[in-house]
Each structure stands twice: as structure tokens, then as C-alpha cells.
Amino acid sequence: MKKxxxxxxxxxxxxxxxxxxFADSAVMNDVTTGIEAKTGKEIYQTVxxxxxxxxxKGAKGAGxxxxxxxxxxxxxxxxxxxxxxxxxxxxxxxxxxxxxxxxAAIVNYIRTSFGNDFKPDFTPEQVAxxxxxxxxxxxxx
Length: 141
What we know:
Organism: Paenalcaligenes hermetiae
Strand order of the largest sheet: 1-2
Number of helices: 5
Number of strands: 2
CATH class: Mainly Alpha
Keywords: Electron transport, Heme, Iron, Metal-binding, Signal, Transport
Shape: globular
Radius of gyration: 17 Å
Distance between the termini: 40 Å
Structural class: mainly alpha
Domain Cytochrome c: 35-114
Protein name: Cytochrome c domain-containing protein
Signal peptide: 1-23
Number of domains: 1
Helix content: 40-55%
Order of helices and strands: HHEEHHH
């Protein structure tokens, strides 16, 4: 029994370390240069997938990462755009690392993927209006 618990504990630690390492490397190599991915799918695969998973179903474990799959909260595009810009709870803001085109692209991608059927009509101009002068978007450090 002790051996099983020890093995289970070790497996848990290794999985957390593995996910944390993947999440850290998945974001970007040099945070000072921003994120190079341009399409919503590329941004998702580069930045979001490590927490929200490949099928957009989110994850629970050391933290809770919300699902995008069949998520009615995505109906209003401003909601995910605000969270991408400024962050929320454990998710950092990406306002310093993604430009307005990239934020519109990722918002439209998650709103039209994972079983969601919302219009991909969120624009970079709408993102620009959401940015606050001298906003603190946080860092990924």
C-alpha cells in the first residue's frame, strides 16, 4: 500500500513538473519579442493549449483552467478578449505580448472551435478600444 501511494505521489509530482515545463516553454522563448504566431489556431497551439488542452476542454489539477468547448460565455466576444488582454485569476494578461490583430484572431478562433458556433466577427479595432492607456497587462515572468 505504501509503495502504491509513493508511486502515485511521484507520478503526480512528475506530471505537474512536466505540465509546468511545457506551459513555460509553450508560451514563448523570449518574452521581450512578443508572440510570433498570427492565426488564431497558431496562437492557440503556441500559447493556450498547455492549459486549456487540445480539445479546448480545460483542465483541473493544481489549478483550474476553464473549458472553451461549448462555452456560452464566449457568446460576447468582449469577454474572452478582456481576459486575454488583462488576465483573470491565475491566467496572465497577454496585452503586452499580443497585438490587436492577434487578440482578435484568438478570440474568433475559440468562438468558432470546440463545438462553438459564434460569428468570427471580432475585429482588431474592437480590441484597440478595449485597451486602456497605461494599462498594467502583467508579465509572463
